[in-house]
Amino acid sequence: MSTAHEPRVLAVDDEIPFLRALSINLRAAGWRVTTAQTGRAALSAVVTQRPDAVLLDLGLPDIDGVEVLTRLRRTSAVPVIVVSARHHPVGKAEALDLGADDYVTKPFAMTELLARLRTCLRRSGQSGQGPGGVLVLGELEVDFERKNVRRGGEPVALTPTEWQILELLARRPGALVSREEILREVWGPGYERETQYLRVHIAHLRRKIEDDPSHPAYLVTSSGRGYLLDSAVEPSEETPSGAAPEQS
Predict the structure, then answer these.
(1) pLDDT, averaged in runs of 10, over the chain (248 residues)
(2) Do 140 and 63 belong to one domain?
(3) Which residues are bridge partners to 240 per DSSP?
């Protein structure tokens, strides 16, 4: 990881003029920039350069960006913002489901992208607010100081976004936290209506911490309201993906 004063970003895009302009703006904003024009180069750069965040285009010439994201998530929790010209909502949903932390559609305002990068950096570097200690709910252990989770004594690998959602709920066990509050605290102001982001990441968490994600016992939905983390509840009915549609 780079220092807090010089965060490093890997920008991946096969359009050279766009990549050049993006790099200039990122450097002007204080970022150290590494670029890649292919999927293979991007995967290599993540290992060798250890960026603090990745900006990933989906339309790459050798390996599709979706495949790059899939491979990346097998070995790395680095925050990924998809930056793509694809406008179809399925593209956004698929990217989030595969582990992207955010999604920006071209063309975009540089101020918006920088704000989202800062949010990613804050999530990945956040050491946790409030006191440390370990919360134990049944077989689930949440260690606030070490920022790790165990289920049945086995470590659970979480991305920075997944950890921040779980930490927010775990610091208030048994209390309902609204969707709007989670979105605002994890993604930042202005994201309160992006419920798709939250549903996807809740589904990811359930796959990792629940014995049966379709009947969650820990991470429970209050339909149309929000979520709570509690072991003293009966497993609730959910769709197999763990991301049941909710009332708005």
Answers:
(1) 70 94 92 94 91 92 89 87 72 81 88 89 58 80 88 90 91 89 87 88 94 92 89 46 39
(2) no
(3) none
